[in-house]
Specification:
339 residues, mainly alpha, 12 helices, 0% strand, elongated
Length: 339
Amino acid sequence: MAESKPDAAESKIDRLRARYPWLDHVIRAGVRYTERYGTHYAAAVTYFSVLSLVPLLMIGFAVAGIVLTSQPALLDDLRGAITEAVPGSLGDTLNEVVGQAIDSKGTVGVFGLLGAAYSGIGWITNLRDALTAQWGYPKADLPLVKTAVRDLFALIGLGIALVVSVGITAVGSGFAHLVLRGIGLDGVWWAEALLRAGTIVLGLAANWLVFLWVLAKLPRKPVSWRSAMRGAAVTSVGFELLKQGGSIYLGIIGTSPTGLAFGPLIGVLVFANLLAQFMLFMAAWTATAKENVLRDPPPPPPPAVIRPVVELRKAPTPGATVGLLGAGVLIGALFRRKR
């Protein structure tokens, strides 16, 4: 009886999979994600995601230094705000740090660019390898320099897609506010609610474009746009939910000094890892759709084993040898007489 329980549970799962195609699809995706080391790849992507934050901050400081140098009034306002927010010696120390960052903006910018290039290429390389693995392709031995150049162009393309996505959201939201002001509905609750809903829909569309690029163009093997459309749509919804969860998390930790000190870093780690795992799972989900499932190749034949066989035969006995020689002599004599 105890042995029949797993079989019964397995048959029940099989029946559910046969009854609900979406459940069968999710299970296939989970198996593909596990077999293709999705968690390990997500950890690598998370590492380079967090690693890239430092050089990006350095570039941000350099850009801010260039802007503040050309805008002395803005620099004075920043220093005054720091003094008001952090009075005493700590405020003076922060102002000195700001001054040193502005003075060394060139060096900081150069090191930031170098660090961003290293971490960015590492991030895009691991992401492309992970997406390719979820499509069932083995990792190929590619030339180092050629692969790095292609990954750099892929990173630039992804950056352009992100800029277009953010631009669509920003322009659409700003245009909607202008329209509300123009027709006199600015501040009306139902108009604001419609605007917020439209902003969310526009953000989902922008996210869809980005994830469509990720799922279709970042794998090292060609993937059709049509195959990636549904996966990109689900991924954009999941990404929006993760963002909302991150906003709630930041609101919770903002009430504690300890949370303000360590919460953002922990939040970035968790958010980056969840997003990487979800994105790779959706790549596996897209790859295991019925229209994309590759036919399993036939199993290779077993290895050939060459075994030389040596057969030993007995030599004729002396009596047999004499008999054979005698028969040969008689046959030869008969042929001579006939001639």
